[in-house]
Amino acid sequence: MARAYEIGIAGCGPGGLAAALFLHRLGHRITLFERFEEPRPVGSGLLVQPSGLEVLETLGLAAPIRERGARIDFLKGTSIPSGKRALDVRYGALRGDACAYGVHRALLFGTLYDAVRAEGIAIETGRTVTAVDIDTGGGRFDFADGATSARFDCLIDALGARTPLAPPSGRDLAYGALWATLDWPHDVSFLDDALDQRYRRAHEMVGVMPIGLRPSNDKQGAAFFWSVRADQIEALHAGGTAKWRDTVLALWPETAPLLDQIADTRDMVFAHYAHRTVRRPVSARFAHLGDAWHSTSPQLGQGANMALLDAAGLASAFHRHTDIADALAYYAWLRTNHIQIYQALSCVFTPLYQAGDGLRPFIRDQLVHWFAGLWPARNLVAAIVSGGIGWPLRPMRLDGLGSRNAAPVTTSGP
User: Fold this and answer.
1) Of 203-212, 352-361, 402-411, which gets the smallest average pLDDT?
2) In angstroms, rounded to a whole number, what is the distance separating the alpha carbons of residues 386 and 405?
3) Which class does domain 6-170+274-396 fall in?
4) Is 345 exposed, middle or buried (0-12, 13-18, 19+ CB in 10 A)?
5) Among 10, 27, 92, 145, which one is most buried in terms of CB atoms within 10 A?
6) Averaged pLDDT, 395-414
């Protein structure tokens, strides 16, 4: 039987939790480290794309997402005042019964976290990881209180885009978004199977997405978001909620029942995005995963899905290679091509939807409105948003990999 390694994972986000489950089921001994005293999700809604859902299916955890999330068949956006389509994604253009699921982050987190706890995977809370010490035989995490972890054979960084364990790279994007989780307004004709958005050029954007049952009250919920420049967020708050509300209503009057649930803009969560990629994601005993390796704007809806794909890729690598250095190198090989494709796509698409100029959104409206109904474009856009461009899952061969009796195998190459 292959050796069972001691593996430490910093971060209890979706990527860290999924990696812990995969590696535990391969027979490795896993310890997760989390800075919160009680692990919890941060943020509002997200899309679980078909690629991410397939990873959850491998782990046997897709059912809660389907049962409690909201099925999303369309992503649509309308440019105001022209009324032209500025976003048009139809999952029906893909094969089979493809769709995404709108969920609150707490549903995805809770599904993975409950599975981790049920399988007895160790979690050390109240541990703020600040650094790693790696040598030829393993490594340790250093914590903010001056303590040091036990020694591990391998360390994984799943601390997100602001990780202290990676060298500075990339850049913060000018725009972010204010997010709120609200009750679904049943008396308004919002699409209950679509992420719907309204734009004024690219400097104003409001979006509504159904997220299924809210974890807090089991009512049907909505994720509501408003695009805003990071350097203007304080001015927005200082201008008052009433002024901001009037701005949103001028763009999309039907959002009034949602805005009525927001007493103060400061009650919303501001998410500031970054575009970055760590040039060397792995070493002989250490690897970055998810946003700790690569992050982009949420325009393509790939954040959590990319982390889940990383976790599956890491498991596939450890399944094929019993040597840690070989496994981590194979993990980087599995994921780099797909990550580079989506980093490039994000660079192209993000300025079309969050920018201060008028030329790019004008071009966007003309092209999307014209191309949206054409067969090649419709299928290509659906494939991009689903996470399937580059066929990231094909080389992983996930069949049986997430089962509780999966066992590592030895191989000499890709």
Assistant:
1) 402-411
2) 30
3) alpha beta
4) middle
5) 10
6) 65
pLDDT per position as a tens digit, 8-34? 999 999 999 999 999 999 999 999 999
**What CA–CA distance (Å, rounded) separates 123 from 195?**
35
What would the two tokens of residue 221 be?
């919920």
Please state, as a whole number, how many other Cβ atoms lie within 10 Å of the Cβ of residue 136: 8
Instruction: Give the pLDDT score at 1.
Output: 42
What residues are paired with 208 via a beta bridge? 196, 224
Paired tokens of 65: 């997402």
Strand, coil or helix: what is 179? strand
**pLDDT score for 405:** 62
Given a cut of 60, is residue 408 above it in pLDDT?
no
Number of H helices, E strands in the chain: 11, 18
Please write the tens of the pLDDT for every residue from 48-73.
999 999 999 999 999 999 999 999 99
User: Using CA atoms, how far apart are residues 233 and 238, in angstroms rounded to an integer?
Assistant: 9
Q: What does each C-alpha distance from 113 to 48, 241, 405 come to in angstroms?
A: 16, 36, 20
Q: Which residue has the tokens 């946003």?
A: 291
Phi (first) and psi of residue 310, to 5 degrees: -60, -45
Pairwise CA distance, residues 7 & 89, whole Å: 40
Residue 261, number of CB atoms within 10 A of its CB: 14
Q: How many CA atoms lie within 13 A of 197 on its CB side?
A: 25
Distance, CA of 378 to CA of 188 (rounded, Å): 29
C-alpha 354/C-alpha 347 separation (Å) is 11
Residue 321 CA, distance from chain mean position: 27
2: left (phi over 0), alpha (psi -120 to 50) or beta: beta
The answer to whether 99 and 71 have CB atoms below 8 angstroms apart is yes
Which residue matches tokens 């996930």?
Answer: 398
| CB 46, CB 108: distance < 8 Å | yes
What pTM did the predictor assign?
Answer: 0.94
In sequence order, the 6+-apart residues with CB closer than 8 A to the CB of 58 are 312, 398, 401, 402
Could you tell me the pLDDT band of residue 38, with boundaries at 50, 70 and 90? confident
Q: What's the confidence (pLDDT) of residue 260?
A: 96
Please give the C-alpha separations between residue 103 and each of 220, 228, 308, in angstroms, as whole numbers: 11, 23, 15
In the block, tokens 């030329």 appear at: 359
pLDDT of 404 > 90? The answer is no
